[in-house]
Specification:
The chain is of the alpha/beta class. It is 45% helix and 17% strand.
């Protein structure tokens, strides 16, 4: 029996798959406000040669400028536990909740986020875990570059 996946999580996964199909790192994210996607993005470090364009940062960028009140009502969906840079952006804009598809392949700055009062929902989505495991096995040098190892 298959359960219906959250459509916003699915949108983030679709972004991750798009990044992978472009030769990049399969991490996707969407920024959601009141049931509407404001921004969607995927890791573009490889495609754009930009070290700042992780999936979450791409979603923030694609959402464009928003009033502070809007950010404080958003949920950020991401296919992978957010790194310190993406966590910092989320804290800067006071995003109250982050839905994380998985943190098995990479444990980001979750302790910091929780300490700052961000609600985290970690789903351990099997498809996302498999996608990252396969990518890390196939392209370890690219993955290590992304997380500065």
């Amino acid at each position: 029996m298959s359960t219906q996946r959250d459509p916003f999580l699915q949108a983030a996964i679709d972004e991750a798959k798009l990044g992978l199909s472009e030769g990049g790192i399969p991490i996707g994210s969407v920024l959601v406000h009141n049931g509407k996607i404001l921004g969607r993005g995927h890791n573009l470090r490889v495609q754009n040669g930009d070290p700042l364009l992780h999936g979450e940062m791409s979603a923030f960028q694609q959402a464009g400028r928003q009033p502070a009140k809007v950010y404080r009502e958003c949920v950020l969906y991401t296919t992978l536990s957010p790194c310190p840079m993406c966590s910092g952006a989320s804290l800067l804009y006071k995003i109250p909740k982050i839905v994380i598809a998985e943190n098995v392949t990479f444990q980001g700055a979750e302790e910091w986020l929780r300490h700052e009062g961000v609600e985290l929902e970690v789903l351990q989505d099997e498809e996302c875990i498999a996608m990252m495991r396969d990518f890390i096995a196939a392209r370890p040098e690219l993955w290590n570059e992304d997380i500065a190892v």
